[in-house]
């Protein structure tokens, strides 16, 4: 259990982020449900945590904005006194073929998915170093390992997250802080729900387990990495992909 711990989950208003927030809340964690655009969806996540007997609050912050991240971290520290778990889940896509991809779309994806994770890790690490404990879990993707046509920006951001995870793990390990990444494959979310039936069939055919995973499958992996059971695990990338890129 994670009774009494404080966690920040970025991009927690829907999909995988929502499932992670619910999982941590069920384990007794006080969850800061971060969102950028949808306050209603974030509040629904917080309400669901509270309905299950947990504690949660919502907090609006665009992780691509360093000053906004600084305010988020300082406010949580001011109210809670510590941050035990950081889950960098916030992410966006701006898919296009490389030769058609605009500089704006490339920069937007890197700013949120990669630089956003850098912002929160940089700010949280100073407090975790003082605590001599902490769990940082970054959401990568199978695309960051295997690449994907039409997603050069997204793949670059997630490959960057993996490299940053391993570097931070080496820097912080001596103070009892673990840094790991989770790389989901095809998961049933709003994003994959927009795929056509033919694309879904083709994707499922690449997965040895024969279908898409659920957000809860990813959330359980994050819950494990956040727990004391994973205290000797750092710098790792845990694939939750049904064997897709084994």
Explain how this protein is built:
This protein has 246 residues and is α/β, with parallel strands linked by helices. It has one domain: Rossmann fold. Helices cover 48% and strands 15% of the residues. The chain has nine helices and seven strands; from the N terminus they run βαβαβαβαβααβαααβ. It has a seven-stranded parallel sheet with strand order 3-2-1-4-5-6-7, sandwiched between helices. α3 runs parallel beside α4 and α4 runs parallel beside α6. The longest helix has 29 residues. It is globular. The model has no long low-confidence stretch (mean pLDDT 96).
From the spread of the alpha carbons, the general shape counts as: globular
The ordered H/E elements are: EHEHEHEHEHHEHHHE
**How would a textbook summarize the main sheet?**
7 strands, parallel
Q: How much strand content do the residues show?
A: 15-25%
Number of strands: 7
What's the architecture in CATH terms? 3-Layer(aba) Sandwich
């Amino acid at each position: 259990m994670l009774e009494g711990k404080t966690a920040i989950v970025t991009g927690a208003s829907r999909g995988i982020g929502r499932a992670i927030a619910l999982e941590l809340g069920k384990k007794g964690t006080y969850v800061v449900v971060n969102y950028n655009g949808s306050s209603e969806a974030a509040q629904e996540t917080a309400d669901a945590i509270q309905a299950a007997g947990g504690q949660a609050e919502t907090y609006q912050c665009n992780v691509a904005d360093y000053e906004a991240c600084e305010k988020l971290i300082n406010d949580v520290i001011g109210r809670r006194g510590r941050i035990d778990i950081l889950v960098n889940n916030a992410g966006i896509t701006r898919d296009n073929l490389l030769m058609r991809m605009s500089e704006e779309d490339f920069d937007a994806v890197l700013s949120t998915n990669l630089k956003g994770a850098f912002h929160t890790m940089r700010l949280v690490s100073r407090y975790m170093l003082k605590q001599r404990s902490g769990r940082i879990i970054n959401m990568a993707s199978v695309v960051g390992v295997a690449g994907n046509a039409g997603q050069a920006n997204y793949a670059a951001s997630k490959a960057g997250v993996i490299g940053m995870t391993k570097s931070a793990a080496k820097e912080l390990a001596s103070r009892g802080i673990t840094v790991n990444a989770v790389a989901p494959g095809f998961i049933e979310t709003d994003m994959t729900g927009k795929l056509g039936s033919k694309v879904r069939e083709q994707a499922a055919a690449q997965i040895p387990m024969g279908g898409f995973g659920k957000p809860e499958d990813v959330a359980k992996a994050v819950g494990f990495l956040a727990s004391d059971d994973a205290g000797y695990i750092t710098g790792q990338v845990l694939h939750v992909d049904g064997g897709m890129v084994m």
